[in-house]
Automatic annotation (TrEMBL):
This is Phosphoenolpyruvate-protein phosphotransferase. Mg(2+) binds at residues 188, 212. It is found in: Cytoplasm. The active site is at 259 (proton donor). GO terms for biological process: phosphoenolpyruvate-dependent sugar phosphotransferase system. General (non sugar-specific) component of the phosphoenolpyruvate-dependent sugar phosphotransferase system (sugar PTS). This major carbohydrate active-transport system catalyzes the phosphorylation of incoming sugar substrates concomitantly with their translocation across the cell membrane. Enzyme I transfers the phosphoryl group from phosphoenolpyruvate (PEP) to the phosphoryl carrier protein (HPr). Its main location: cytoplasm. Belongs to the PEP-utilizing enzyme family. It catalyses: L-histidyl-[protein] + phosphoenolpyruvate = N(pros)-phospho-L-histidyl-[protein] + pyruvate. It comes from Pseudaquabacterium pictum. Its EC number is 2.7.3.9. GO terms for cellular component: cytoplasm. GO terms for molecular function: kinase activity; metal ion binding; phosphoenolpyruvate-protein phosphotransferase activity.
Length: 331
């Protein structure tokens, strides 16, 4: 089994009908990059940078400390792309005992709908620019991409672009080296999934955060056990939004990935490939089983089955039944 997994790791990730599928890793700290490589990932699709900010007794990492962490991840991936998400603080990832910001969070009635992710960053412009400078500086050491969590509003997009431009200007003025970075948006709010032309106009790539997209589409707190049975990735509304984002991005020739839990769950691999997805980012431990699915997938066949499954009242049952019939025919 170990030998088989080892062979699998070095095998290119290509479907039966010759479609390359990019398998990337989600990491939380620079040290995780080694696991990503070990698992055969061809890059980091999601570096959750907020983990550098958490569990620190209120003191936050300054620009240099962040830069060193990002550079460590970039160097560890030796030339492979590293997608660094700006802090996704708030809601399920609170800061500990953090001065005034923390107070604001504690008093939020609905933290998941409150000042989190890019909203939090834009409310702390100095800290946001500091993080952007740290990320830009790491780009001098490898291929860096910047990913913005929870965007939905045009004003947020424009403010983000402005912050990035200022960070670039500050580095340039100080003579500090950096290179071009691609800018991406996480699609986590239904409003963003439904206004793709706006996002595609401003961003180089998109990454679908299904964990939050499910939460916000179904109005189910992803951390609340009492409603966990209603947290359903197979809900037709969720699947329609995901299919729309993939189709719009592909149509615009911009890269689209899924980096939520669905990406690492083999129950969804065929469906996502059928929707036209060619990039998935997941925990390194899930990579080999997803790759096995990719190697056995026929995307041309799968693409034909997506429409009927999405249109049905019970997509999970419809999808499984179609694939079961196909498996029997091919036996
Ligand atoms: C997501 O929401 O799917 C995602 C990848 O981000 P996080 O789980 O860190 O909120
Ligand atoms: Mg999220």
């Amino acid at each position: 089994e170990r030998a088989r997994l080892h062979r699998l790791r070095h095998m290119p990730s290509v479907t039966l009908d010759g479609q390359p599928v990019e398998l990337l890793a989600n990491i939380e700290l620079p040290g995780d990059a080694a696991n990503a490589l070990e698992a055969g990932a061809v890059g980091v699709g999601l570096f959750r940078s907020e983990f550098l900010f958490m569990n620190r007794n209120g003191e936050l990492p300054d620009e240099d400390e962040q830069f060193e962490a990002y550079r460590a991840a970039v160097l560890a991936m030796s030339g492979l792309p590293v997608t660094i998400r700006t802090v996704d603080i708030g809601a399920d990832k609170p800061l500990d005992r953090m001065a005034v910001h923390e107070l604001r969070h504690e008093h939020a009635l609905n933290p998941a709908l409150g000042l989190r992710a890019i909203r939090w960053s834009l409310s702390e412009p100095a800290m946001f620019r500091q993080q952007l400078r740290a990320i830009l500086r790491a780009s001098a050491y490898g291929k860096v991409r910047v990913l913005i969590p929870m965007v939905a509003h045009r004003s947020e997009i424009l403010a983000t672009l402005d912050a990035l431009e200022r960070a670039r200007q500050q580095l340039q003025d100080a003579g500090i080296p950096f290179t071009d970075v691609e800018l991406g948006a996480m699609i986590e709010i239904p409003a963003a999934a439904m206004t793709m032309p706006l996002l595609l106009q401003h961003f180089d790539f998109v990454s679908i955060g299904t964990n939050d997209l499910i939460q916000y589409t179904l109005a189910i707190d992803r951390a609340d056990e009492a409603v966990a049975h209603l947290y359903d990735p197979w809900h037709p509304a969720v699947l329609q939004l995901i299919a729309n984002v993939i189709a719009m991005a592909n149509g615009a020739g911009k890269s689209v990935s899924v980096c939520g839990e669905m990406a690492g769950d083999v129950a969804f691999t065929d469906l996502l490939l059928g929707m036209g997805l060619r990039s998935l980012s997941m925990h390194p431990s899930q990579l080999s089983s997803v790759k096995q699915r990719v190697l056995r997938a026929d995307t041309a066949r799968l693409a034909k089955e997506v429409g009927p499954a999405l249109a049905s009242a019970d997509p999970a049952a419809t999808w499984l039944a179609m694939n079961e019939r196909w498996a029997q025919r091919s036996r």
